[in-house]
Design brief:
There is one protein chain. The chain is of the alpha/beta class. It is built from 13 helices and twelve strands. The protein has a single domain, classed as Phosphatidylinositol (PI) phosphodiesterase (TIM Barrel), CATH 3.20.20. Strands 1-2-4-5-6-7-8-9 form an eight-stranded parallel β-barrel. A three-stranded antiparallel β-sheet has the order 11-10-12, with no helix packed on it. A hairpin with a 5-residue loop joins β2 and β3. The chain starts with 8 loop residues before the first helix and ends with a strand.
């Protein structure tokens, strides 16, 4: 069946608006942007148009990456310089680090789609009166204090912020302590879990990996010496998709978050992001839908193929579990030990681990609209995965 122009904004917007669950859970990665780098039907990532079009698509959340100029202006871009997206990559202004340039120098740089760099404030002002909220990723600790102080001094713009996240827990701590908490913004810690290890130069500042399928959250925090900081920040988690991830792993993490921060003002928040290079076939409606009641939000690039239903998504089974994890019967079980209420042992086979119902709410991090999340699953921590041939 012909679905129409799958690169068209109206095509994606119509389907997103007709599915309220997807609409309330998907986070548009770098805004409504073009993965193919042609910029014919979509704008360039992290540009003003990328977020204007995110609103038109009916999205509730869109992610952006923030850096700070030499004179303290917060600007959007994925990398530390504009070389990858500039019309002339060898232009002096494109090759120099954003942190070494003043805004007056940078603002006239032509990008590949004919646009120019944009301030964070400009995008937040565009979002006033809309239902879209920005998910701000701090790419460097040098921008953390500036962002925190700026949002604390501009409460009218905070309503456009969903949450602030970073691969660096130290960066999140700077943001929170230097204004983020005062602004009422919530922090989320990005964690990697790639199927293939990244090269060192590919890693973001402070980035570390957590294999949540084989290591408990408590053990991980103890191993990296981050337990006290995590408890102090009361931050959420944004986990990288891994082909062997299963719903029970996320349930266990959510239960541990409840126990680690029992007096948290918000319920545990866990989002999911994926790497289009490593797991391109995951970013499809068939693959992400089974995870909607497991994660609070899921990142997407909304590729042209997102809505296309295929009889066989290469390497992806109905639960997002790949063929290489298949072929053996699996049993997932957990029993209660230190939880207040008694629970029966739960068993599931053939990778269909039980998923509890998670309530989706409006994720807006303002004092007037508290950051709400899934209900406490109250799951025990004793969890075992056995694989039998």
């Amino acid at each position: 069946m012909c679905l129409g122009d799958t690169s068209n904004l109206a095509f994606h917007g119509k389907r997103l608006k007709s599915n309220s669950v997807l609409q309330n859970k998907l986070v548009l990665h770098r805004g409504w942007h073009c993965l193919e780098n042609t910029y014919v039907n979509r704008p360039l990532e992290n540009t003003r148009q990328a977020y204007v079009d995110s609103v038109k698509a009916g999205a509730r959340f869109a992610e952006c990456d923030v850096w700070v100029t030499k004179d303290g202006i917060l600007v959007l871009n994925h990398n530390s310089s504009f070389a990858a997206v500039a019309a002339e990559p060898d232009d002096r202004l494109a090759t120099l680090p954003i942190s070494s340039l003043d805004w007056d120098e940078l603002c006239g740089l032509e990008l590949q789609d004919g646009s120019t760099p944009v301030k964070l404030d400009t995008v937040l002002e565009d979002l006033l009166g809309t239902e879209l909220r920005l998910v701000i990723e701090l790419k460097t600790s040098s921008a953390a204090s500036r962002l925190g102080a700026h949002l604390a001094s501009c409460p009218d713009l905070v309503c456009g912020v969903a949450w602030v996240m970073s691969f660096s827990l130290a960066t999140l701590e700077l943001f929170v302590e230097d204004g983020g908490r005062q602004a009422g913004c919530h922090s989320v810690w990005l964690l990697g879990n790639p199927r293939e290890a990244y090269e060192q130069e590919e890693l973001d500042e402070g980035e570390i990996a957590w294999n949540y399928a084989s290591e408990s959250l408590t053990a991980f925090l103890d191993r990296v010496g981050a337990k006290k900081c995590f408890q102090h920040l009361q931050c959420g988690l944004y986990l990288q998709y891994h082909p062997c991830a299963m719903p029970a792993h996320i349930q266990r993490a959510r239960a541990e978050m409840n126990l680690l921060v029992p007096d948290a003002a918000q319920q545990p928040f866990i989002g999911l992001w994926s790497d289009a290079r490593l797991d391109a076939s995951f970013d499809r409606v068939e693959a992400v839908t089974p995870w909607l009641d497991v994660f609070d939000v899921i990142n997407t690039d909304l590729p042209r193929e997102f809505w296309l239903r295929t009889p066989d998504l290469t390497g992806v089974e109905p639960l997002g579990i790949p063929a290489e994890c298949d072929g053996k019967a699996r049993t997932f079980s957990w029993t209660s030990t230190d939880c207040a209420s008694s629970r029966s042992s739960v068993t599931s086979t053939n990778c269909a681990s039980p998923r509890s119902s998670i309530t989706s709410t409006d994720w807006r991090s303002t004092a007037q609209e508290p950051w709400a999340a899934a209900q406490d699953l109250a799951l025990p921590l004793d969890f075992a995965v056995t694989v039998a041939a």
